[in-house]
Sequence to fold (221 residues):
Amino acid sequence: MEFKGMLSILCTITTIGLFLSGSRVCQKILRQGNTQNVSIMPFLSTFINCTMWLKYGILKPDGLLMLVNATGATLAGIYLVIYYLYAQDKDRVHKSLLYGGFILYSVLVYVKFYHEDNHVALSSLGQIGICATVVMFGSPLATVAQVCRTKSTESVPFAMSLATFLTALEWLVYGRIVGDFYIEFPNFLGSVLGLIQLLLFVWYPSTPSHVKGSTGPTSTV
Fold:
């Protein structure tokens, strides 16, 4: 099997594996019977992002993009349904879904009706997809800031950080092979950010440095 084919299989497995990590959050919701301390934004942003890249894969066309993002959008849709069913503040959920739906609908309508040329439509959707992916980097950036502030990686799962880095790196290589800047660029940023997160485990211990050697009680804020 050629390298591109092997890489496509690897990208499919690792990316869908990351999407499945949302099931652990849903298990928490089902276990506690509510959505307390669980945000809808990761599910909603994943659904919007995957739907945009699914459309991009259809226009390109690219079977790998279609498969992975169709799976991601479906799983995120299921997570959203579970979140909605167990949410106490339905009005707040309605607003989030309305805003997210408006953004997604606007993008799809814009690409469908305002660009007759398929190449121009693909380019516009690629640029929007880059912006959407960069926005999703807000969560990892917040994690980096928190670790630097507390000087501890205790709240950061190493396995997830490693998986995210490897997945972004795989898509970076894939984008390079197929010569697609819109796949390559956001995953380059994702790889750099993922590497920074991994380096945090080297720079900082798993517990705050001032706790080490302390025999008294500690408090978390």
